[in-house]
Design goal:
This is Alpha/beta hydrolase. Helix content is about 40%, strand content about 15%. By secondary structure, it is of the alpha/beta class. Strands 1-2-4-3-5-6-7-8 form an 8-stranded mixed beta sheet, with helices on both faces. Helix 1 links the parallel strand 3 and strand 4. The longest helix has 15 residues.
Length: about 300
């Protein structure tokens, strides 16, 4: 594993909150913003992965904690939504009232670009981060050079659901003691990585769990993020009007967001390219970094000034 120098974490005001962020690569490089998924801190973008991405594409790679997670603002005063009630309302086609939605989180991204003095950036989003990136494409396209959606969905009705095991870990509360959290973290990722074995990743689970735990957990914030996903509904009709150059990456063995969801994203966005990766689940496993990084670097190079 490549050793990467420790990052200097900063906080910037964006969209009336504060976002914690750090960066990799040449500060003068073409900016690339990484947007992470539900309940995931920015460190879920592995340091070595970010360094490879910066080197391969000549990018200034920026990762950040979404609102309500990690070291970014926790919106405690907004309360804890009733997820079960929201799911019932969503299935009934009723409008949802939630603390915020994914469009607000896309505005956070734009606010961070503003704070960093960046006019346009390549955007790479994973899972919920991919949905946030889609909202950027719909509402803030002029701020984007390109978009890469990884293991995400349009939110359209009728798409395949998660496996029961993946659904169970999605809704399992994180323990509040470190030993219990470490075991919980390993179980979650063992399921989300899918049926294949990834010894290199599994060997680092304890280290990753410690890093996340020490940066701080916010279960209420995860619930608010999940409510935001539910409230944001079906983006597919709006995505048909998107003209941001798009690459879709999805694993064939994704248990949480099945590959048909990624195919749907690629079908919805005109001109989108689809890269299906055999054996990849709902994770970015170390053996697949070269393929993922090379695909993103090639995509951003083709649209460096689009």
């Amino acid at each position: 594993m490549t050793t990467v120098a420790p990052r200097v974490e900063r906080r910037s005001r964006a969209n009336d909150i504060e976002l914690a962020w750090d960066s990799f690569g040449d500060p003068a490089g073409s900016p690339l913003l990484l947007v992470m998924g539900l309940g995931a801190q920015m460190v879920a973008w592995d340091d070595a992965f970010c360094a490879r991405l910066a080197e391969a594409g000549g990018h200034r790679v920026i990762r950040f904690d979404n609102r309500d997670i990690g070291h970014s603002t926790h919106l405690t005063l907004l309360g804890v939504p009733d997820i079960q009630a929201l799911m019932v309302q969503a299935m009934a086609g009723q409008p949802l009232r939630t603390p915020y939605n994914l469009r607000d989180m896309a505005a956070d991204c734009v606010g961070l670009l503003d704070a960093l003095g960046i006019e346009r950036a390549h955007v790479v989003g994973a899972s919920m981060g991919g949905a946030i990136g889609q909202e950027m494409c719909i509402h803030h396209a002029r701020r984007m050079l390109s978009f890469t959606s990884i293991m995400s969905s349009t939110g359209a009705p009728g798409l395949p659901p998660p496996t029961p095991e993946a659904m169970a870990v999605l809704f399992s509360p994180a323990p509040t003691t470190f030993d219990a959290y470490q075991a919980h973290h390993a179980k979650v990722w063992r399921i989300l990585r899918g049926p294949a074995s990834f010894p290199l990743d599994e060997a680092r689970d304890a280290e990753k769990a410690q890093l996340v735990f020490l940066r701080g957990l916010n279960p209420a914030g995860v619930a608010r993020q999940l409510a935001a996903i539910l409230a944001s509904g079906n983006r597919k009709p709006a995505l048909r009007e998107v003209r941001v150059p798009t690459l879709v990456i999805h694993g064939d063995d994704d248990p949480l967001v099945p590959v048909a969801c990624g195919v749907d994203v690629a079908d919805a966005i005109p001109g989108a390219q689809l890269l299906r990766i055999p054996g990849m689940g709902h994770a970015l496993p170390i053996p697949m970094w070269p393929q993922i990084v090379d695909a993103i670097a090639a995509h951003t190079a083709r649209h460096a000034g689009s």
